[in-house]
Amino acid sequence: MEADRRVGVAVDFSACSKAALRWAVENLVRNGDHLVVVNVQKEGHYQEGVTQLWETTGSPFIPLSELSDSGIAKKYGVKPDAETLDILNTVARQKEVVVVLKIYWGDAREKICEAIDSIPLSCLIIGNRGLGKLKRVLLGSVSSYVVNNGTCPVTVVKSTDHAS
User: Fold this and answer.
1) Which of 106, 110, 124, 152 is nearest to 37 (CA)?
2) How many other C-beta atoms are found inside a 10 Å radius of the C-beta of residue 149?
């Protein structure tokens, strides 16, 4: 077994990404792991200069203890919801897992694949919005792209909530 596992979960705070996070916490993450929450923001809603500074490498790792800070939301344009924070705080406490958030800006498909290599991740869990065939062709499925182009094992968790 790998001593320093970095389990990545792609999270956009939607219902399907929370389902993927819950699945990872319940089925994969174990004591001593690092849980890296990977979030990709479209350009926009960030403090001036932040994306220019980290547009190629992503943000620094943001520790779990800082995620509920309103300054994080302003600085990076990310506002984790209470349910996601509860899942992360619980796994950190129960399994002694180090939880960090890493934010990227740009195309989610490309940035998640970059995260796999640059962090580097041992594996990645990603949600699936359950797009129909036509929407998947028109919009492109992030999970399909990551499965086909990611350089680590990728698990896709199907969401039972189709409202997202």
Assistant:
1) 124
2) 13
Q: What is the DSSP letter of 159?
A: P
Token pair, residue 73, equals 């939301």
pLDDT at 46: 53
Q: How many CB atoms lie within 10 A of CB 164?
A: 15
Neighbours of 70 (CB within 10 A): 8
Phi, psi of 115 (to 5 degrees): -60, -40
- The DSSP secondary-structure symbol of 151 reads S
- Alpha-helical (H) ranges within 13-149 are 15-27, 50-54, 70-76, 82-95, 108-118, 133-139, 142-149
Closest CA to 7 of 21, 15, 18, 16: 21
Residue 101 backbone dihedrals phi, psi, to 5 degrees: -110, 135
**Alpha carbon distance 14, 76 (integer Å):** 18
Spatial distance between the Cα atoms of 80 and 64, rounded to a whole number of angstroms: 11
Contact by Cβ (8 Å): 125, 155 = yes
pTM over 0.85: yes
How distant is the alpha carbon of residue 18 from its chain centre?
A: 10
Q: Could you say which residues of the chain have pLDDT below 50?
A: 1, 162-164
